[in-house]
Automatic annotation (TrEMBL):
<keyword id="KW-0227">DNA damage</keyword>
<comment type="similarity">
    <text>Belongs to the DNA polymerase type-Y family.</text>
</comment>
<keyword id="KW-0548">Nucleotidyltransferase</keyword>
<keyword id="KW-0239">DNA-directed DNA polymerase</keyword>
<keyword id="KW-0460">Magnesium</keyword>
<keyword id="KW-0479">Metal-binding</keyword>
<dbReference type="InterPro" id="IPR050116">
    <property type="entry name" value="DNA_polymerase-Y"/>
</dbReference>
<dbReference type="GO" id="GO:0009432">
    <property type="term" value="P:SOS response"/>
</dbReference>
<dbReference type="GO" id="GO:0042276">
    <property type="term" value="P:error-prone translesion synthesis"/>
</dbReference>
<keyword id="KW-0234">DNA repair</keyword>
<keyword id="KW-0808">Transferase</keyword>
<dbReference type="InterPro" id="IPR043128">
    <property type="entry name" value="Rev_trsase/Diguanyl_cyclase"/>
</dbReference>
<dbReference type="GO" id="GO:0006281">
    <property type="term" value="P:DNA repair"/>
</dbReference>
<feature type="binding site">
    <location>
        <position position="117"/>
    </location>
    <ligand>
        <name>Mg(2+)</name>
    </ligand>
</feature>
<keyword id="KW-0235">DNA replication</keyword>
<dbReference type="Pfam" id="PF00817">
    <property type="entry name" value="IMS"/>
</dbReference>
<keyword id="KW-0963">Cytoplasm</keyword>
Length: 431
């Protein structure tokens, strides 16, 4: 005889949760300084002075005032003069991300993080914690009580519907979406609201007379494959609420690690360029070590004041995790492929051909072999200090230059990128 809890679990199916943090970056700042930000209209954005004045996310109080993601800060301030604009702090966001995922992971080892603020959980085998609704409520409650962060949770038989369900009630919602509910709840919505269909794909669907998810669900598969290829099969299945993709326990290994910095002012002097490259090399090397990887290739990105972008790359003679090695190669690439009399607006470094450090044979000559243990000890100590006190706890002399005032400017440069550390690989937008 089934217990009351077992009755909520299918005998031959899955139960998936999608945990989605609400206005994550703003919520993190509110959790850190509630007296300053609670209930206020806030937005996380790059500064106008550093030419990154775009809203990355905003609080729900700000959304009620007409503020939205992607809006320029100038326009947002006109709509909401009392808007509090906060500089991004990705070290802090990663700290809270790790904390909420640790809570989620305690209910199932089948957890897949798809971005810094969301994850899937396969709780099919988690009956000991209660019904799916009870587990969702407990995860939501613990994240709120332990971290002071709001989240929404979707409950469904697959990842697609769980993601759709978590979007149904925000903030602090819990929603259930079953296969039998798809026609009633989703079919009258535009195709662009189906997770995985981007704006370009939705427009292409409209051009062939398909406007709603319901119409997409009923369209002949042959029609869709003729217009979209094999993806057409997936689209029809998704519109009918069908998704067989598993919850992956581990994220795919990154194919590359990169960082770009838009500069406060255009630069061209050798010492300024090298200082920025050293800063970026330090950041990407630290992220590389954090994932216990080494890089076998490097690419630099240069953008001119007129927004022309070029990239140049080369393979490394020996895989490395060392910032100095990365910096040396980046300087060589820049000097070989760019004239010093030409100003640049943006610089970036991307590490490629990544492999686990434990699987890589790093060759050292006799002198380097003797120095290596000391180098690794120093690097580990620097990483430990930064983990505890923040990214700017340790700054090398090369980052400062001859003028002490460069310290402040350099610290600003280190925080100008708005790149995400996680990429949602579930999205789909066809050209």
């Amino acid at each position: 005889m089934k217990s009351d809890v077992d009755a909520y679990y299918p005998s031959n199916g899955r139960v998936i949760l999608h945990v989605d943090m609400n206005a994550f970056y703003c919520s993190v700042h509110e959790a850190e300084e509630p007296e300053k930000y609670r209930g206020k209209a806030t937005a996380v954005a790059g500064s106008i002075e550093l030419r990154k004045g775009i809203i990355v996310t905003c609080s729900y109080a700000a959304r009620q005032r007409g503020i939205s993601t992607g809006m320029h800060v100038n326009r947002a301030l006109k709509l909401c003069p009392d808007l509090i604009v906060i500089q991004p702090n990705f070290h802090l966001y990663r700290k809270y991300s790790n904390a909420f995922m640790k809570i989620a992971y305690s209910y199932t080892p089948l957890m897949q993080a798809t971005s810094i603020d969301e994850c899937y959980l396969d709780i099919t085998g988690s009956r000991q914690f209660g019904t799916p609704q009870q587990i969702a409520e407990e995860i939501q409650r613990r994240i709120d009580e332990e971290l002071a962060l709001p989240c929404s949770v979707g409950i469904a038989p697959n990842k697609l519907l769980a993601k759709m369900a978590s979007d149904m009630k925000k903030p602090r919602g819990i929603s259930v979406l079953r296969i039998r509910d798809v026609a009633r709840i989703l079919w009258d919505k535009p195709c662009g609201e189906l997770f995985g269909i981007g704006g370009k794909t939705a427009e292409k669907l409209r051009k062939i007379g398909i406007y709603t998810i319901g119409q997409l669900a009923k369209t002949e598969e042959e029609t869709l494959t003729r217009a979209f290829g094999v993806v057409g099969v997936w689209m029809k299945q998704a519109a009918n609420g069908i998704d067989h993709s598993p919850v992956l326990e581990e994220r795919e290994q990154n194919k590359s690690i990169g960082h770009t910095t838009t500069l406060p002012t255009d630069i061209q002097a050798r010492e300024d360029v090298n200082r920025v490259l050293l800063n970026i090399s330090d950041q990407v090397a630290r992220r590389l070590r954090r994932q216990e990887l080494v890089a076998g290739g490097i690419q630099i990105t240069i953008r001119t004041p007129d927004m022309k972008t070029i990239t140049r790359s080369r393979a490394l003679a020996t895989p490395t995790e060392n910032a100095n090695d990365i910096y040396d190669e980046a300087r060589r690439l820049y000097a070989e492929h760019w004239n010093w009399d030409k100003p640049v607006r943006l610089l970036g470094i991307t590490l490629q051909q990544l492999t686990p450090k434990c699987e890589s044979a790093i060759q050292l000559d006799l002198f380097e072999y003797e120095k290596q243990p000391k180098k690794e000890s120093l690097t580990q100590a620097m990483d430990m200090l930064r983990n505890k006190f923040g990214e700017n706890a340790v700054v090398t002399a090369g980052m400062l230059g001859d003028d002490p005032s460069v310290l402040l400017r350099n610290h600003k440069l280190r925080g100008t990128s708005l790149q995400m550390d996680y990429v949602n690989k579930e999205g789909l937008d066809l050209p």
